Amino acid sequence: MLIGADAHLFENRLAYQLEGETHVFLRNDELFVHVIRGDNDKGFHVDTTAIVAGGDSTITVGFPADSSAFAVNLTRDIVTPVATYNDGEPIVAISDIESGLGAFRRILVAHKVADAQFNWTFGKGHLVLVGDFVDRGASTTQVLWAAYQLEQSARKSGGTVHFIIGNHEIKSLQANYQTANEKYFHIAGILGKRQDQLFDDEALLGRWLASKNVLEVINGVAFVHGGLHPDIPKHGVSVDDINRIVRAGYRTPYYSPASVSTESFLRSGTTGPAWYRGYFKADLSQQQVEQALGAVGAQAVVVGHTLQGKVNARFNRKVFAIDVKHPKDYLWSFPFRSSEGLRITNGQYVRLLENGGTQVLN
């Protein structure tokens, strides 16, 4: 426990309920909605509905943990987001949900970002999802549909959801499922597909994820899952360059080349922005941190990826670390877990607690 370990006490078998699992695939102008029905005793079948252009594009996503459900409005329009924003609006950031829909929903509701149906309630604010929302849990599909729905709902209200790609999203896009819940292997089989096809370019969620950025700068603050390596200034790349280069490698497994290039540096599992851990494990100076920030036009950076006991500030409030142990949907652990996040308003950084409480970070 002193080094952050915990004990798994009980797993709810609802984690393996496949009834209602929903996946959407694109072919030309049609969307094909596949909903799994049945169970191990009765057997499984798939209800498939084709949605032509102009047809009703609302689906219902179920959450077995509490038998709830929420609606998702689908769109065929998937575009790469801009990567730099300057509007002075408040920001809430959450990272490393790791397929935990219940924890995601609770902290959003507690801090008035969304309601329990994932409808936006944060006005013109920004919600930044700082990577690793997939893997290590049994609600991957539900979490991604929730983020997708939040994005559609926020846009209608003038707000913005930013899904920053983390190393585990990259793993999913590259068909690396070592830390995915085993249920998704079987879900793919029921749908008549391989597991990698759940996130390929014909899968709506796969195409949506592949369009996202690995780094965004919002009101002078950089958001990146791993971090900004101190050698970034040497490569002379802009925020858009970094996103373009890393995005081009989302679907290509990385290997260490004989000679390092800008492309290999940014896609690396050690130095790349989705993977870097140097703020916590390397001997970095304040100057190196600030030079890397300056290279992307930021005054501070918010990161996930490296587990913390609580949301905290480092390097004279230039680095904010927000990866904490969120509760699991179907797994009870000891010590008990509690979600946290970060809010930034008018230059003030506030730690957000699961119960709705706050604490200013000094």
How many domains make up the coordinates? Answer: 1
Q: Beta fraction of the residues? A: 25-35%
Structural class: alpha/beta
Q: At CATH's second level, what is the architecture?
A: 4-Layer Sandwich
What is the highest CATH level, the class?
A: Alpha Beta
* Mass-distribution shape: globular
Helix count equals 10
For the biggest sheet, the summary is: 6 strands, mixed
Radius of gyration: 20 Å
**Distance between the ends:** 27 Å
Low-confidence stretches: none
Write up what this structure looks like.
The structure is a single chain. The protein is an alpha/beta fold. It has a single domain (78-360), classed as Metallo-dependent phosphatases (Purple Acid Phosphatase, chain A, domain 2, 4-Layer Sandwich). It is 23% helix and 26% strand. The strands form five sheets. It has a six-stranded mixed beta sheet. Strands 10-9-8-17-18-19 form a six-stranded mixed beta sheet. The mean pLDDT is 96.
Topology diagram in text:
Layout (H helix, E strand, L loop, with lengths): L6 E5 L10 E6 L2 E10 L3 E9 L6 E6 L4 E6 L10 E2 L5 E4 L6 H10 L15 E5 L9 H17 L3 E5 L2 H7 L9 H8 L13 H7 L4 E4 L2 E4 L7 H4 L3 H9 L14 H6 L10 H4 L4 H10 L4 E4 L8 E3 L4 E3 L9 E4 L5 E6 L2 E6 L4 E3 L2
Parallel strand pairs: 7-11, 8-9, 9-10, 12-13, 13-15
Antiparallel strand pairs: 1-16, 2-3, 3-4, 5-6, 8-17, 11-12, 14-15, 17-18, 18-19
